[in-house]
Amino acid sequence: MSLNLGRFQITIIRKKRFKGLLPALLGPILALFLAFFVAGIIIVFSGVNPLLAFQSMFNGAFGSVRSFAETLVKTTPMLLAALGLTISYRTGLVSIGAEGQIIIGGLFTVLVGIYLGFLPGFILIPLMMIAAMFGGGLWAAIPGYLKAKLGVSEVINTIMLNYIATYLVAYLLDVPLREPPGYFPQSAQIAKQAWLPYLLKGTRLHMGVIFAFVAAFIVYFILWRSPLGYQMRAVGFNQKAARNAGIKVEKNLVLALALSGAFAGLAGMVEIAGIHHRLLGGFSSEYGFDAMAVALLGKTHPVGVVIAALFFGALRVGANMMQRTVQVPASLVFVIQGLVILFVLMDELIRNYAIRLVFKAKREEE
After folding, report:
1. Quick count: other Cβ atoms within 10 Å of Cβ 10?
2. pLDDT for the residue numbered 362
3. Which terminal Cβ of the chain has fewer Cβ within 10 Å, N or C?
């Protein structure tokens, strides 16, 4: 692509892609380094030693068994939602709706956990998982269907469905689901046997972390070891070529978003059954939005997504320790997250394209 600007011509050339593990890892590593470098400059201007701040952040996330357990707790919902987004991104769909799908998954979890609370735990927990995945998948299938049949942008639809999910749950907590006697906008607790068992005494580490890491293997199998995953990736690479090869593009678009929403719904389930045990406004803590950054940093591959989710979970936990010890605001974490996304996207541009500036000499008039 060329752009003429008088005596200058700017040409953008697509470079040859380098394959292999090392080139794929260099981008995220460089993005993390640059993000922390810029964050360190910000900390210096606040009058604090950045090395001390980052050390306290690391100790807060990994300095003890209890802190590492809390890091895993924060990692779990982000990992599940990011794994779902990996499926949609690999299919060429840009979903912004993981947050709303988490909320709907939490809603379906509470409905089952309350109204079927008479069932034993070994039946009730799987039922809540199925309900949450069904709710999140159904919520995501709506923009998938609109994209496949009408060509409506999934970006706009998933964003709007986030708001609908948020205000729908707010209404339900205000009127029909409010816990008696109705002092606070929250639901009643789900049945005790529906609570996810804790894995480590004295911590909040629950069985949901096992679900999340198992889900990483499932997503890898779906995308790289199954005919369905091959079709989805083919659709994401080139819809026209996939259609000419006999792949049902529309079907794969809907199914990809539905699967993406199912994993996000499961993230809502583990938050409710593992941590809150009731439906609350804002229980998702914006994990769905962080999951987009996790999927991008992890290069939409389950292995990378696991590492990126662990990093973002550590940021959330370590930020509180950093604020307590060196008085650096925990909101700095959001700056680091934004910088990571920026540098990851810049890495894609730099590695894939070269920008050539040509100076055209002015011809002398004869």
Report:
1. 13
2. 47
3. C
Give me the numbers of helices (H) and strands (E) for the chain, helices first please: 13, 3
pTM for this prediction:
0.88
Assigned fold of 49-327: ABC transporter involved in vitamin B12 uptake, BtuC (1.10.3470)
CA pair distance 111, 179, nearest whole angstrom: 13
Based on C-alpha coordinates, what's the Rg of the chain?
Answer: 23
109, 169, 172, 329 from 190: Cα distances, Å: 9, 16, 16, 35
Q: Please give the share of the chain, as a percent, with pLDDT higher than 70.
A: 88
Crossing angle of helices 287-297 and 249-271, rounded to 10°: 120
Please say whether the beta carbons of 290 and 21 come within 8 A: no
Distance of CA 215 to the CA centre of its chain: 14
pLDDT, tens digit (0-9, with 9 covering 90-100), for 66-96: 999 999 999 999 999 999 999 999 999 999 9
Please report, as a single letter, which amino acid is at residue 204. R
Buried b / exposed e over 288-304, threshold 16 CB at 10 Å, is bbbbbbbbbbbbbbbeb
A 10 A CB-CB count for 32 gives 18
HSE, CB side, 13 Å, CA atoms: give it for residue 243.
8
Question: Does the pLDDT at position 363 exceed 80?
Answer: no
Question: What residue ranges do the domains of the chain occupy?
Answer: 49-327
Please provide the size of the chain in residues.
Answer: 366
Averaged pLDDT for residues 333-350: 76
